[in-house]
Amino acid sequence: MGKYWNEEIECMDREQMKALQSERLVKQVRHVWDNVPYYREKMKEKGVTPDDIKGIEDLHKLPFLSKADLRDSYPYGLLAKPLSECVRIHSTSGTTGKRVVAFYTQNDVDMWEDCCARAITAVGGTKEDVCQVCYGYGLFTGGLGLHGGSHKAGCLTLPMSSGSTERQIQFMMDLQSTILCCTPSYAAYIGETIHKMGYTPDDLKLKAGIFGAEPWTEEMRKQIEESLGIKAYDIYGLTELSGPGVAFECECQNGMHINEDNFIAEIIDPDTGEVLPEGSKGELVFTSITKEAFPMIRYRTRDICVLSREKCGCGRTLVKMAKPMGRSDDMLIIRGVNVFPSQIETVLMKMSNASPNYQIEVGRENNTDTFVIKVELTDGMFNDTIRSIEELERKISQDMLSVLGIKAKIKLVEPNSIPRSEGKAVRVIDTRKLID
Ligand code: DLL
Known about the structure:
Bound molecules: 5'-O-[hydroxy(phenylacetyl)phosphoryl]adenosine
CATH class of the largest domain: Alpha Beta
Low-confidence stretches: none
Number of strands: 19
Strand content: 15-25%
Distance between the termini: 35 Å
CATH superfamily of the largest domain: ANL, N-terminal domain
Strand order of the largest sheet: 4-3-5-6-7-8-9-13-12-11-10
Order of helices and strands: HHHHEEHEHEHEHEHEEEEEEEEEHEEHEE
CATH topology of the largest domain: Rossmann fold
CATH architecture of the largest domain: 3-Layer(aba) Sandwich
C-alpha cells in the first residue's frame, strides 16, 4: 500500500470532485425529503424542494440544521432508514439533558472506518504497524472509529480504551506499538508518566500519534512529539457526522484534509448565516452526502475555523481546515467532557432558589485542565442542615459532579466580589490559550 488509502479520491481533480459532490448531494436531498418528515417540513418552510437542488451551487438554498433540531427530534426524528437497517448507535459526551444519538447503517460504518483508515495511512500506517487505540470505547466515537480504521488499514490493533496509564505503557513496550491514538491531553499525560517510570522515548517503538477530539496548540504538539519521540497529527470529527475522520492531518502537519467525497464544508457568518468567501474565518457547516441512516444537511458545528485550498505538499487535493479556533456557542470542553455554563447555573439555582453570581475559571496545569467555579454567597444558600462554608462547598461540588460528569473545585466568595459586566456577563475565563 502506498502513501494514500484512496489515491483516486484523495488526489481527485477539483472539477471531478465537484461533479461527484453534486451528484451525491442531489441524491441525499431526495433521500431526506422522501424519508424524514422533519427535513421535509424545514425545507418547505424555506420554500425549497428537491427539484431546486441541481448541484453544489444550490447548497445555500437549503435550511441549516442545528443542535437544537437534533434535540427537538430526539431520538428518532431524523432517522432516514428503518431501524431494522441500522446496526450501531453512538452518542455525544454531553452528560445531562438529551444527548445527541447518531445512527449508522453498515454502509455508514464502512464509510466512517474508511475515513479513519485514510487518516492512519496519512501518518504512515500500514499492515506492518501496531496501532494502540486509547480513545474511550463505547458511546463515544473515538475508540471504535479509530479501531475500525486501524483494522481496515491492516494494522495490528490494540483496543486499549482510555485509563490504566501504566498498563498502557507496559503494553506499548511489550507489543512494540508504533501508532498511538488518543486525545492530545492524554498523550501528554502518557509522555509524563513514561518519564516518571524512568523510561525514555528510546524505550518505545512509537513513530506517530493521531490526536483529536479537543482543541490543542502547536506548543502542545511540540511537547508531545519530544516526550514520546513521535510525529503528532491532528484529527477532527463529530458524532453527528459519524465521528473522528471527518478531517485528518497529513505529513505536512499544517491543517486537516476534509474527506470531501463524504462531507461538503462551508464557512458561514455565525450571526447572519451568510456563506463567507474562501479563506474567511467563520463557523464550519457540514453536509454529509453519503450517510444513510442519519444524514446531516448543512449542520452547524459551532466550530470556528478557516478553510484553505492552497496546494498541499502531500499531493492531496482535499480542502484543508485549520485547527478549530474556538466555538461560537458557549460549550466548553474540559478534560474531554462537554460542559455548558447553563448546567452550572441550573445546579446553583437549585441550591439558592435564585440565580447566584458565578464565574468559571478554566486553565491548564501539567497538561491537565483545571476547573474552578467561583460562586458568590447568597443568603438562600444556607439552611438548617448546611452550616459551614466547607460543607456547602462540598455539597455544591458533589452536585456539580453528578450533573457535569467531571469534578470542579468550588470556591465560595464574598457577595459582589465577582466583577459585573455592562454587556453580557463574563461567565467563563479560559486561560488555556488554545487559540494560537
Ligand atoms: O470528539 C470525535 C472525535 C474523536 C474526533 C476522536 C477526533 C478524535 P464529539 O464528542 O461529538 O466528537 O465532539 C465534537 O469536538 O465539534 C469540536 O468542537 C471538538 N473537536 C473534535 N476534534 C477536534 C480537534 C468527537 N482536532 C467536537 N481540534 C467538535 C479541536 C476538536 N476540536
